[in-house]
Amino acid sequence: MTGHPGATHYVVAIDSGSQSTKVLVVDQHGRVHASAQQPLRAYDTSVRGQVVHPDDDIWDSIAAVCTEALDAFAGDRALIVGVGLCTIRFCRALLDDDGLLIEPMLSWMDERVSRAHIDEGGTRYVTTSSGYIAHRLTGERRDAAANYQGVWPIDQKTWRWSEDPESYTAAGIRPDQLFELVDPGGALGTVTAQAALSTGLPEGLPVFATANDKAVEALGSGVRSDGDLVLSLGTYITAMSTGPFASATESHWVNFACEPGRYLYESGGIRRGMWTVSWWRQLLADGGELSEDDLNRGAEKIPPGSDGLFTLLDWLAPGDAPQRRGAMIGFDGSQGRFHVHRSILEGIALTMREHVEAMEEGLQRQFREITVSGGGSRSDLMMQIVSDVFGRPARRMRVTDAAGLGAAICAMVGSGHHADWDAAAAGMVAVRDRFHPDATRTAVYDEIGRKYSTLHSFTDPMFHEIGLISR
Known about the structure:
The chain is α/β, with parallel strands linked by helices. The protein folds into 2 domains: 10-209, ATPase, nucleotide binding domain (Nucleotidyltransferase, domain 5, 2-Layer Sandwich), CATH 3.30.420; 224-471, Nucleotidyltransferase, domain 5. 34% of the residues lie in helices and 20% in strands. A 7-stranded mixed β-sheet has the order 15-16-14-13-19-20-21, sandwiched between helices. A 6-stranded mixed β-sheet has the order 3-2-1-4-12-11. A two-stranded antiparallel sheet has the order 5-6. Helix 10 crosses helix 11 (421-428).
């Protein structure tokens, strides 16, 4: 443990997401003392099938937001004891001999990350978003073991690089191109003088590994037992629980949790979930001033079911149904912008109820309460719709940036300011409020849900035909 016994100590939590970078300065009690956020630049999608973060946008945004958050921090910087680094999962960074990008970072939406790496020359290292940022911060070639999902030669049971040569061939990566793996809470290195100038972080400050961003979010939401479930309302919407290693099923898949030896169980999801809410709000903003609060207030007055308007949230098609597209069905001239807004929120909740029910059956466990995290949890309307659709209490945490709080927990455990993961979660995660279901509205959503679940059987053939026409 570093710092002064009995004093309040702080960590800097970096949460680099799909749409923005957020940085929190958090104490050992989970209180946020400073924060900053910056939207990322629009993805470059100029090449079909490729989605990249332009230039060096991830690092540039982290440097800027760290500087802004630390400038806003009024406490003693000498009592900052570490950095927790959480970045977007499923990204791929191709680096040169100096550890710098040889091309813009591949997003999780880029088709190339779902298949083996093809070396086109000049690639010295292949790593994740967290590996690249950790190298920029520390100069070391270490990365978070729990941020490796997808096509990588990693052993799921040992959390270390595979001993099977065929796994490297399948991934298209040589062993000497990979970084050293570090468990959650383990040290990635210390902030270099150059990184300190760029970020405002103190030189020599330890940087600690976390996991993939969804696992970090689950930790920061207080998911600790078999009965805990978090509904993550972010760009990618999913539901998560944790437990020991288990085989994936049709209802859920399994990846690393944000605690050594534990695993994250993850339901099916919505690939552009809250992005669709932002898309709709932006369309309206282009025609005049209309805030999300305005939309929510208007949508609160619309009855459950949005007067027959249904939204299918396939703005980015799922991998197992690439022909799908987003759709709104049921317009009859009576609906307006508030109906559309409510229908999008209802579509999110109805889709995720199907996924959670399938997950419950696959895991043979029942989730009595829904913890809601991510930007969507800031909306009272969204929270109430979730509670009504699921027919269960929905709780919102004190810190809605659960990935940021999870990164802070990792840094507090790594620096020794909490004895273990249970103590850190108990001391830093707190419930802000709960929303309870209305029985009448839940009954309406039960009936709507039965109809909603059949819609893809009608739209899939249509989109398949449209796809044939557009080729």
